[in-house]
Structures are given as C-alpha cells and as structure tokens.
# Entry
Amino acid sequence: MLLSKILKNIDYKGEIVRDEEINDIIYDSRKASDNTIFVCISGVDIDGHKFAKSAYENGSRVFICEKEIDVPDDAQIFIVENSRKVLRKISENFFDNPAKDLKIIGITGTKGKTTTAHVVQCVLNGCDVPCGIIGTVGAEFKGKKYPTVNTTPESYELQKLFRSMLDDGCRAVALEVSSLGLKQGRVDGINFSCAVFSNLSPDHIGPREHETMEEYAYWKSVLFERCDNAILNFDDEAHSVMTENCKCKVMSFGFKSEYDLYAENLQDIIVNKKTCISFDCNIMGQRTNVVAPMRGDFNVYNVLSALGVAVSFGCSIDKAIESLKNVKVRGRFEVVDIDADFQVIIDYAHNGYSLKSILDTVNSYKTNRVICVFGSVGGRTKDRRREMGIVAGSMCDLCVVTSDNPDFEDPMNIINDIVSAINEVNGKYYTEPDRKKAIEYALSIAQDGDIILLTGKGHEEYQLINGVKEPFSEIDCINEYMRRHKND
# Structure
C-alpha cells in the first residue's frame, strides 16, 4: 500500500517526499526491513525512539514518532502527538479497517474472560455465526492458531488478526479486553456489538498497571461506553460502576430472579462419564435446562454471559444450549486424563480471588486431600502472594509452593513471601523452586481420592526466567511422570 494511503486522515508534522510502497508496519526494530514503517512507541519500560537507528539499519526508511530522532537524512520522519494512537489509525488504513465488517464481542473482568470468550465462540459457531477468538491463550479461527503476546494485543496485531479472520469467513470475534488494553488505547476506534462484564476484584494494581482499584475499575468501565449491548453480572457490585456512562441496552445475569438471565437448581450430573454442570435457566422469560461439560458456580456465570450474547445476536436459544456440549477451554479447570485413583486439575488461577473460587469447587468434590501446587509471578505486588498464601493455606490440606514466572526475581524470595502468609493460618506446606520437581513431588505422594490442583500456569507452556520464556508444559510433566511410574 502507498504511504499516502496509510497516512490518510492522520495529523502529522512532516512531508511525504517519496510516496513509496509499504509492505508492513513495525514497532519492534528487530522486525524492521525494507519498505516498512517504524512506529516509535513510548512504553512503560522501553522507549521506541531509542531504537529508531536500529530500525533504520534493518531497512526502515519511514518513521512515525513523537519527537526528533537520530537517523540519516534519507529517512522520512512524521512527528505526531501520540504514536500509539496513530499506530491504531494507520493499522486500520493498512488492513482496510476489517473491524467494521465484524461483530466484535468485548469481554472484560478480573476473572473468567478466557473461559467466557471460548464459551461465546462455541455458542455462536453452533448458531451458524462463524466466530473467532482473541485473548490470553492466543487467537484462533477455523483451526488456524495465532500466538499473541498480551491478553489484548496491540492495535496493529488486532487489525491484522481481524483481517485474516474476515478473509477466512469470520463474522464475529470474541475479544478479551483487558483494563491495560483499554488504558493504552489498543481497542480505540472499535465499535463493540456486545460488551460483557464478568466480575471485579483487586488485581493488576501497581506502578506498571493501575495505581488504585478505582482507576482499575474506571478503565474496565470504558468498554461499556463503546458498545451496542451491555451484558453484565449483576451479582457483582461493580456492575454499577460499569454502567455509569453506559447509554446502550443493558442485560443482567446472575442468580437472582429479577435478572434478565438467571440460574437456579444448580447440580452436578454425569454425561458420557464426564461431570457437567446442570441448571435451570430463565432467559428473558423463557425457562429451559442447561448442561455444560464444566464445573463450579463460577462457570455458570460464564455460560450465562455467553447465552446473553446469543440473545443479543438473535440466535436460537435451543441451538445455543445444544452447542454448549462442545465447550472445552485449555488450562481452565482442565481435568487431566490420567490412569490413576486421584485427580489432577490444571487452572490459571493466579490471585487470591480466583484461587478461592477454584478451591471452593474442588473442596466440594474432594473425597480425600486437596494438594495445591502454586507460586506467584515475579515483579508484581506482594499483596497477591499474601492473598494466595492465606487462601491456599486455609483451604488446602497441603500447599506445594514453587515458581511461577519469577522473571528477574529470586524464586525463593517469592516462595518465602507466600510461606509467611501460609504460616499466618497454620497451613501445611512443602517448598520446591523447580516447578517440574514440585509437580513430581505432589504426584509422588498422591493417595486414592486426592485432588492435585496446579494453578497459575493454566494454558501457558513456558516459565519466564530472567526475561526469557523457557519452554515448560505442566501436561508434559504429568504425562512423563505417569509413564515412568505406570507400574509402581
């Protein structure tokens, strides 16, 4: 695409000297090459302006920046007020604004975004609305999978994914929308057909993300100023914050009969040898029974919100409910298939709130002990470590405290912070900084009827150590151990 078309309707200082053909837009200098635009973004830790020269050396000759940069005279420089916002606009131009031809479902909340997105995708696909998904576990449509770095990718990646999905026949996209994604303008300019709110609890509070809980809630609420339909968990008090500036149609869901969608008579049933949740559901006055291959009250909320999306799309309720039998979410209360008299469950729970929700469910099923293998991310607030330690220490029979993306922090410092909290509630614990060894220890002491819960990693297949994502799979650890000890 010609440079002039990419810069259409962009305010900038500079002059197009050569209206050259552009093959791509880059904001990582390592990916720069001939015929690329390099956008200098000022981030939390890294200032892209410092890497302009490197991008030039790799081939870029067009630069968008917020201040003067030191590059040779043959470079075309365009100075803008906010390069991140301009990245979004030029990405829309470059990919011919694919979002305008898609129905985007924005899903936000502290907990449950990923599961809700997968349930929404499953329901819409079952209702003949081809739906893609973009979020924490990556992006996917029609079997094609694309890795993503953030829960809500940068605007360029979003537009690129939208274009790929649209060209493949996609009509809707379930998009996880993080508070940071909203704060940094990654989803600016997108009109959301639906916006879903799951819940709000203290998380992502710190100098790198949000200074206060109020700020965190505010950025979540921004999503509901940009949607045609708002679907909210009214059992969570923060729903009122989400709707303060919301001018669209609001649909409520939860466990109370005054809501638009509400659940009652929740129970566990066995279908094809799998434990499922079953509940009676009132959907806009229509009463029906719902069954899904999931566990826990928290998943009822995820199913209700997805059914709310189906209603807003005008889908058949019967089709939507029938499609739920195909729901499966990797790393979210994932029961590992092993030949043993104990269970192993993998979940992404990585804060006190989500860990408590999972343990409430696990404890309702247990016949013997609950052994929880967990850690906490390095470089984050110590409050999270304390919350997790207190929850696990008071709700588990044994805590196996280990590493979970320690990054540049000493894993034992993190472990000791967690152990201090476990001691506050007189919990039992075992420490092992090597996560593989920690998992093997839990498996080695498992007894009949035990439930081993691995939390924090979920779908992730790496450990972040000293800035490097080292390959690591909990499923592989479990399967390898079980193969070695098959005849023990």
